[in-house]
Design a protein that fits this description.
5 helices, extended, 101 residues, 0% strand, mainly alpha
Length: 101
């Protein structure tokens, strides 16, 4: 039920999101997600649709966000038990991760 409700809410927001994207008005989080998936905030949307206005401010914000500690934590890879970790992981957590592999 809640998934259907959230999907309906997202559909209602699509026209607003589209208009904001055309103007290049993204939140810091939206830019961070784009950068995580190698999408340029100033790139065209798809064939035949114009890109948002390319301005130095948008590119500068994207660069600033990409270099931020918050973004770096956001794009950290998932836990891999085969790599060395700087943090000691409780043996119960390691056992649980091995069990669900």
């Amino acid at each position: 039920y809640y998934l259907k409700q959230r999907a309906a809410e997202c559909l209602l927001e699509l026209p607003d999101w589209k208009e904001r994207a055309k103007r290049g008005e993204y939140s810091d989080h939206e830019i961070s997600v784009m950068l995580k998936y190698d999408v340029s905030p100033s790139a065209p949307f798809s064939a035949g649709l114009a890109a948002p206005p390319v301005n130095a401010g948008l590119i500068e914000r994207a660069t600033s966000i990409e270099l931020s500690e918050r973004h770096r934590r956001f794009i950290e890879p998932a836990y891999d038990p085969n790599t060395q970790s700087e943090v000691d992981i409780h043996p119960a957590v390691v056992a649980f991760l091995e069990k669900i592999k």
